Amino acid sequence: MTLVTLNDLHAARQRLEPVVSRTSLLRAPWASCGHRSLFLKPENLQITGSFKIRGAYNRLSRMSEAQKARGVIARSSGNHGKALAHAARQDGVKATIVMPSTAAKVKIDGVLEYGADVRFASPEECPALTEQLAAEHGYVTVPPFDDLDVIAGQGTVGLDISDEAVAAGLDIGTVLVPVSGGGLISGVAAALKLTRPGIRVVGVEPELAADAGESLRTGRRVTWPTERVSRTMADGLRMTTVGEHTFEHMRVFVDDIITVTEEEICSSVALLARRAGMIVEPSGAVTTAAYLYHERDLPAAGGHVAVISGGNVDPDLFELLRKEAPLPFQTCRG
């Protein structure tokens, strides 16, 4: 199966230059103790509140004018849909987003804000409805993760990390990446292993939606039932299985996948809010949780980068966690 190349990644970065912020690594002194240090890659600061603009815009920019005239469609729990809606509006393209009926209101509102047509279905029925609408109306489907152009776009996060680490002389040994369908970790891992192969790339997912880790361990794509993955509050990480393309990238480039608990996710959202002043959704906080709570699963020394994948969180949930969730006990002063 075809994998993205370094040329693909650099070409994607060039296309994204006008629309994507090259978010800088932020040192987290409150989590840097002894020989370990933490840096945050804040993709929640992108224009649509997540890294997803990278893959959506790269895929759209690769379409012909005839394809764009047909309109685009995607299924999404929110962040991919919002990103595609924004990219489509910028290019005058009609966008239709199929969202699960369980989607967070803040994410539905975000998609609508950019003028997309939103259709709803149960989580199980979203893929079929997307295919049906694409066939009926001739829309071009933009997959949320299992597409080489999408993977290459997301992989520019990894190029950013690699370039900044070299330019600033940072001793980065491990990069932690959230895992759902696998588009982000596939691109990031490819970018890092093709530029700095000594860096360890570790995926992080909720233990209540740990299909990716099981897939990597068993060497085959595993599917978890929708009702099982729906238990996690990390709504952006509720995919039931990784994609064919993403699984192959993970097998080649990813070193490990670890899981975090719901309590660890809550605590990390609160910590990022109180100590870093950041609005981070639960899906984006899993990497910080892994660093704080799973030290024994990670290298004992060196710099760690936690990719903060998004900040599109329900305001009431965020305020509740910020005020009430207990903080991790092993943070440092600073």
Brief sketch in words of this structure:
The protein has two domains: 6-47 and 148-324, 3-Layer(aba) Sandwich (Rossmann fold), CATH 3.40.50.1100; 53-141, Rossmann fold (3-Layer(aba) Sandwich), CATH 3.40.50. It is built from 14 helices and ten strands.
Distance between the termini: 47 Å
| Count of helical regions | 14
Specify the overall morphology: globular
Structural class: alpha/beta
CATH class of the largest domain: Alpha Beta
Order of helices and strands: HEEHHEHEHEHEHEHEHHHEHHEH
The name of the CATH topology of the largest domain is Rossmann fold
The count of domains is 2
CATH architecture of the largest domain: 3-Layer(aba) Sandwich
The largest β sheet comes out as:
6 strands, mixed
What are the salient characteristics of this protein?
alpha/beta, Rossmann fold, globular, 334 residues, 4-stranded parallel sheet, 10 strands
Question: Which helices and strands appear, and what pairs or packs with what?
Answer:
Elements: H1 6-16, E1 26-27, E2 36-42, H2 52-61, H3 65-70, E3 72-75, H4 79-90, E4 95-100, H5 105-113, E5 117-121, H6 126-137, E6 140-141, H7 148-168, E7 172-178, H8 183-195, E8 200-206, H9 211-218, H10 226-229, H11 244-253, E9 256-260, H12 262-276, H13 282-293, E10 302-308, H14 315-324
Parallel strand pairs: 2-10, 3-4, 3-6, 4-5, 7-8, 7-10, 8-9
Antiparallel strand pairs: 1-2
Task: Please provide a written account of the structure.
With 334 residues, the protein is of the alpha/beta class. The chain has two domains: 6-47 and 148-324, Rossmann fold, CATH 3.40.50.1100; 53-141, Rossmann fold (3-Layer(aba) Sandwich). Helix content is 46%, strand content 16%. It is built from 14 helices and ten strands. It has helices at residues 6-16, 52-61, 65-70, 79-90, 105-113, 126-137, 148-168, 183-195, 211-218, 226-229, 244-253, 262-276, 282-293, 315-324; strands at residues 26-27, 36-42, 72-75, 95-100, 117-121, 140-141, 172-178, 200-206, 256-260, 302-308. A six-stranded mixed sheet has the order 1-2-10-7-8-9, sandwiched between helices. A hairpin with an 8-residue loop joins strand 1 (26-27) and strand 2 (36-42). Helix 4 runs parallel beside helix 5.
